[in-house]
Amino acid sequence: MRRYLIGGLLVLSTVLLGACASKEVRSKQTILDETLRSYAATIRWGDIAQAQAFLDPKYRQAHPQTALDLARYKQVQISGYDEQPATPVNESEVAQTVQIGLVNVHTQTARSVVDHQIWKYDEQAKRWWLTSGLPNINHPE
């Protein structure tokens, strides 16, 4: 009887540990999904100042936005944001390709750019950071 009890406890603990591990993976995936959805909404609304909050702090420090950069973003209105599913690069990085529709607010000329995004998971902060920078609206692809 004791052997069955120990065996049962061993199986139960293995199942619980497996559930915790898959919960952590789901949680990381859920955080990614929420981050990508929130970032997409921020870009769709053209809120570049808010979009900077998604940038990796190291990237932000190495590539600060200038007044000219921000003025360029104000010259366009976002007319579309068509994302492809995020694909894993490795355990802590995903890549996503997005086609962004733009309309020049002065000339009403429409064009699009392709944004190749790289997102990296920060274990300490428990969040995803955009490490590839904000969309480059200066050069259509």
Give an overview in words:
The protein contains 4 helices and 5 strands; from the N terminus they run ααααβββββ. It has 141 residues and is α+β, with helices and mostly antiparallel strands. It has a single domain, classed as Roll (Nuclear Transport Factor 2, Chain: A), CATH 3.10.450. Strands 1, 2, 3, 4 and 5 form a 5-stranded antiparallel β-sheet that branches. Mean pLDDT is 86; it is low at 7-22.
Query: According to CATH, what is the topology?
Result: Nuclear Transport Factor 2, Chain: A
What structural class should be given to the helix and strand makeup?
alpha+beta
The percent range for strand residues is 25-35%
The shape, in one word, is globular
Specify the CATH architecture. Answer: Roll
The CATH class is Alpha Beta
Structural domain tally? 1
Q: For the CA atoms, what is the radius of gyration?
A: 21 Å
Mean pLDDT, to the nearest integer, reads 86
The separation of the N and C termini measures 70 Å
Low-confidence stretches: 7-22
Number of helices: 4
Q: Could you give the order of the helices and strands?
A: HHHHEEEEE
Number of strands: 5
Main beta sheet: 5 strands, antiparallel
As a percent range, the share of helical residues equals: 40-55%
